[in-house]
Amino acid sequence: MAYKIKFGTDGWRGVIAEDxxxxxxxxxxxxxxxxxxxxxxxxxxIVIGHDKRFHSENFxxxxxxxxxxxxxxxxxxEGATPTPVIAFSVVNKKAAGAINITASxxxxxxxxxxxxxxxxxAIDPEGLKQIEAAVPDSIEQVKRLxxxxxxxxxxxxxxxxxxxxxxxxxxxxDLQPIKDAGLTVMVxxxxxxxxxxxxxxxxxxxxxxxxxxxxxxxxxxEMKRPExxxxxxxxxxxxxxxxxxxxxxxxxxxxxxxxxxxxxGKFVNQLRVYALLAYYLLExxxxxxxxxxxxxxxxxxxxxxxxxxxxxxxxxxGFKYVAPKMTETNALIGGEESGGYAFRGxxxxxxxxxxxxxxxxxxxxxxxxxxxxxxxxxxxxGGEFFYDRVDSPFSGDRAAREQIILNANPQTIGGLKVKxxxxxxxxxxxxxxxxxLLIRFSGTEPILRVYCETRHGDKxxxxxxxxxxxAGIQ
Length: 474
Description:
Blueprint: E1 12-15, H1 22-38, E2 45-50, H2 56-69, E3 73-77, H3 83-92, E4 97-101, E5 110-116, H4 125-134, H5 147-152, E6 156-159, H6 162-172, H7 176-180, E7 184-188, H8 197-201, E8 208-212, H9 234-242, E9 247-251, E10 258-261, E11 267-268, H10 270-284, E12 291-294, H11 300-308, E13 312-315, H12 319-329, E14 333-335, E15 341-343, H13 352-366, H14 370-381, E16 386-393, H15 398-408, E17 412-413, E18 416-422, E19 427-431, E20 436-441, E21 447-454, H16 460-470
Parallel strand pairs: 2-3, 2-4, 3-6, 7-8, 7-9, 12-13, 12-14
Antiparallel strand pairs: 1-5, 4-5, 9-10, 10-11, 14-15, 16-21, 17-18, 18-19, 19-20, 20-21
Helix pairs in contact: 1-2, 1-4, 10-11, 10-13
């Protein structure tokens, strides 16, 4: 029985050498090629890029050979490339889509296979199902054209995606005031694709950019995984204090997510960062447009939407929901709880580099450090918001667990009245203070995720514990 390749929230991921093998990457590439041909894309170009994980550049070549063997042409990045740069290259090259060899923030044992459409954004759930269905059971059913032949025939062409992306960024943001501001910016590249980008973009002025974890090291020392949340970022937070930096910008393994640490070496959670970015665009830049948010991100966005007269759309968790809604509504900003933010004028894909530049621009325009920016935000939305999340393994049937949650029917959670239950993606209990509790199942492993946001800092842990009880975990 052939290994079943499943496309989850953001493509397919697996354990290197166990299920993520060269043959299985080729099978996945055949599924994508078959899907593209069914969409009438024969003879068109596909961008392929990769991260710095073990063998990623060779997996990328394996995928390119399959596309070439199926009558598609490939723009292959010259080196490890941030996911947002790959996404932009799709649009810039007028390509039909992309394959990105990356497992993003997963542990070092893993690698992944992301797919994108002609917008550079995520392919919608229906498209992912079609790709998955088109993956052949046998490697014998995979068509390949050897790399040397395909390259000689001009069917696989290597290119440097950096110049066009940098030129594009300079249309979205004036970098000169940031260069002139004299900031000390600490960057944790998490051993990933974002290394070198912010120093390159901000060179030539008074601002200093200091990087850590900026070499290739596929075992990711000093962190469990290159995910921009504690405890993975602790070394970066310590370095921020040590170098008396004004801010810490953390890019995950493929640089599509942004984490932020303040000037005191304290983590600024992703929900607060999302609200800060939205406030920056609406207030300081005077822009208007819809906001797209997943269920698991902040209610501060709903308040900002009311204050500035813009619509807020809530989607299921994952950019496969956010990206299509952003495209449909020409949204100003879209984002999710994991620290991924996308912006109008860019591609409908998370961009940790652009998000980091916007955060720096926010600081420069107001002459404030991150803790001070948060005070400005809280004053605008009527008080402080608190967030946390716990992940818990669970056993047994998922459907039975879902029934346990429905049967619980809690009237209060963490001492706050439950106002409404939303079942768009998991189970979200809206609370009387404008906060919420969300219980969701991981799409890839037997893990239950419990998230909450509340105006009551002293109730966060009680809300999470009640969430675990509702799910029958405790």
